[in-house]
């Protein structure tokens, strides 16, 4: 299993809007992907989308290319304080 995070910088006045968009759920069917898990964390300055599963980078790149994701991205445009960036894991621990 692999993991990748997408860090989305948020404008200070857009955190509530970002939370509302997140509550609507993802713009793609999670069950139709090979992902094992997906989480989103929100701070006052950013949203962090975490994806887990086999070949997760390839899966995320494929999902990003879907029309529904591009349509949803327009709703996020007003929330962004900068360009989203990919963060690779530097440390992970899991109980056996």
Structural notes for this entry:
This protein has three helices and four strands. The protein is α+β, with helices and mostly antiparallel strands and 96 residues long. Strands 2-3-1-4 form a four-stranded antiparallel beta sheet, covered by helices on one side. Strand 2 and strand 3 (46-53) form a beta hairpin. The longest helix is centred in the C-terminal third of the chain and has 10 residues, at 67-76.
Fold blueprint:
Layout: E1 2-9, H1 15-23, E2 37-42, E3 46-53, H2 56-64, H3 67-76, E4 85-87
Antiparallel strand pairs: 1-3, 1-4, 2-3
Q: Write down the oligomeric state.
A: single chain
End-to-end span in angstroms?
A: 14 Å
Share of helix among residues? 25-40%
Global geometry:
globular
**Which stretches are low in confidence, meaning pLDDT under 50 for 5 or more residues running?**
none
Tell me about the largest β-sheet. Answer: 4 strands, antiparallel
Q: Using DSSP, what is the number of strands? A: 4
Share in β-strands: 25-35%
Widest sheet: strand order?
Answer: 2-3-1-4
Order of helices and strands: EHEEHHE
Number of helices: 3
What structural category arises from helix and sheet content? alpha+beta
Mean pLDDT reading: 91
CA radius of gyration: 14 Å
Quick overview:
The protein has 96 residues and is α+β, with helices and mostly antiparallel strands.
Keywords:
single chain; 96 residues; alpha+beta; four-stranded antiparallel beta sheet; 26% strand
